[in-house]
Amino acid sequence: NAGVTQTPKFQVLKTGQSMTLQCAQDMNHNSMYWYRQDPGMGLRLIYYSASEGTTDKGEVPNGYNVSRLNKREFSLRLESAAPSQTSVYFCASRKSLRGGGTDTQYFGPGTRLTVL
Amino acid sequence: AQSVTQLGSHVSVSEGALVLLRCNYSSSVPPYLFWYVQYPNQGLQLLLKYTTGATLVKGINGFEAEFKKSETSFHLTKPSAHMSDAAEYFCAVTLFSGGYNKLIFGAGTRLAVHP
After folding, report:
1. How confident is the model over A8-28, as pLDDT tens digits?
2. Is B32–A110 a contact, with Cβ atoms under 8 angstroms apart?
């Protein structure tokens, strides 16, 4: 099992450019997440998907869109990148968003994005 | 609402010394608590978690944490630090909202281990 994979690993954009970050998991998990990590702020949830066909906003959704393409894949799109979106982006998956919340969340290796 | 506070953004210890990373949580319901570790240029991986039952939880790489309800704490410890423990550590609590549960992370503590 590869677990959670993300592409690309690194990306440099100019202000106003668009791009899509890809994420896939092979653990047959129902729930998937996108986080951003900034120094001193921990991980902040951008969007999540409880199951195939559903998506919901997290803590910091402005400037982003997501697509749950199928059960395996969950992409994050920046329509018009801004310097404030310079960050490390992590995708994660979990067996289920419902229930008691004891499931382990598994993370991908991250995408390091710089917006100039 | 649930939240997590990690005391100390940077902790430095000598190799062989005790590691203590502090985490306090706020939760209106019995919490589920997690510690994750992030090695340089990698994603997060689970160290240990507390759900129910025994309050002293053992994890990977010799780490353990104790859930103390009266102190609303879930501090992470390791008796003897190793150079390979240098990493960033995140405490997290489960947030219950609208029928869903999500993880709320603390700001992280970066652990440095010196020879």
Report:
1. 999 999 999 999 999 999 999
2. no
